Amino acid sequence: MVLNGPNLNLLGQRDPKTYGSQTLEDVESLMKQSFPEIDFIFLQSNHEGDLVDAIQSARSESIDAIIANWGGFTHTSVAVHDALELLKIPKVEVHISNIHAREAFRERSITGKAMDGIITGFGIYSYVLGVHAARHLLAKN
Ligand code: CA2
Predict the structure, then answer these.
(1) Which stretches does DSSP call E strand in the chain?
(2) Which residues are catalytic?
(3) How many domains are there within the chain?
(4) Which domain holds residue 107?
């Protein structure tokens, strides 16, 4: 399951210096092309509760792993963090930009504490790396 948080629906439309010029649709195509054997479920939402619901649904829908860019909720959301803590499948956080090379408030990832790891700063290729990381975790378990 690939989850994207607030404002990522605008990818490619603004701020190309930080986020590149590719759209969220391009991200999904890249993932499908890179891993044709995987059945991805994609969800983008601007609403925290939708993301919490998606995390909870992953428990009953036999999802193998979560790759997620929580957007701005990365730095604020205790609710997403708490939902993640209850989900015991591989969880990889991805960011397009390098959150450590930007404003100080982006340095802290609240959600990241409940993820297995974080990939940050490789443009939309972060999502591809996220799938490799999830596969590595699945192979270990
Ligand atoms: O680098 C990332 O992937 C972020 O998760 C993107 C979030 C930001 O709040 C995080 O600190 C880092 C913001 C997503 C906003 O997406 C936009 C897309 C196009 C134009 C403006 C914002």
Answers:
(1) 2-4, 42-44, 66-69, 91-95, 117-120
(2) 19, 95
(3) 1
(4) 2-140
